[in-house]
Amino acid sequence: YIVSDCDSVGVLYNTQHYTRTPEEAAADAIKAGLDLDCGPFLAIHTEGAVRGGLLREEDVNLALAYTITVQMRLGMFDGEPSAQPFGNLGPRDVCTPAHQQLALQAAHQGIVLLKNSARTLPLSTLRHHTVAVIGPNSDVTVTMIGNYAGVACGYTTPLQGISRYAKTIHQAGCFGVACNGNQLIGAAEVAARQADATVLVMGLDQSIEAEFIDRAGLLLPGRQQELVSRVAKASRGPVVLVLMCGGPVDVSFAKNDPRIGAILWVGYPGQAGGAAIADVLFGRANPGT
Fold it and tell me: For the chain, does the N or the C end have fewer beta carbons within 10 angstroms?
């Protein structure tokens, strides 16, 4: 069955002014294939749409049939719900090896390669024994699942993922993604000088981009750009910039910086995000391009 985003049918009428009346909005949505509204709009205005001849009762019945059919498949009309096959689902059903493997596979497929100069990637376990893992998103957990997410079975952070392939030197470089100061950049530069390769995990989180939170610009927040540029200049080995964010970020400075060999966009990659990032960095999985 097809369900709307919450309040979207109301937005169709109240904000976008797609129709002259709320009844027309309800009729148009149902006739376009919507079966269930997240919100009260259809409950309030569908009867008026039928009475006004804008919508047939058969159209409403069809939407209802699709919705009830799914409820039947779930056993919701077969007595006590807890006694049915789907009545006691819990973490043991979600956190199976197959489901956790699927989370890793989804993260692999969601990573996009934006830059790879002079075959910077993949890194090599033979040449890159020590990796400096730097950035405010380098050792995060909840950030990786974004918003409107369930409870993760467990997390593999970028730092943990990379640690499976090489010895790591970790520095946050910033106090959170807001990165309002540069007090930690010096330590990050020292780490980059000591490592065979440097991975900077930068970007955003729900404090910067979320529903009802508008961003003021497209650049990396605060002193993040300064951190990236200074660390890239100090790094002894190849430098990879990893962007963890949902919305667009202008990283033209990194694209044009010859010291930054590769750029990966990983979105909010989920509970297995750190493992997927490391797999791509070391060539075990191929990113999209």
Answer: C
- Distance (Å, rounded) from C-alpha 206 to C-alpha 28? 34
Per-residue model confidence as pLDDT tens digits over 83-142: 888 888 888 898 999 999 999 999 999 999 999 999 999 999 999 999 999 999 999 999
Is residue 59 flagged as an active site residue? no
What are the angstrom distances between the C-alpha of 284 and each of 35, 146, 269, 289? 43, 25, 17, 16
**Distance of alpha carbon 200 from the chain centroid:** 18
Task: Tell me the C-alpha distance between 203 and 138, whole Å.
Answer: 10
- Strands 112-116 and 167-171, by their bridges, are unpaired
User: Of the listed 5, 78, 93, 250, which one is catalytic?
Assistant: 5
Domains of the chain: 3-83 (no CATH), 95-282 (3.40.50.1700)
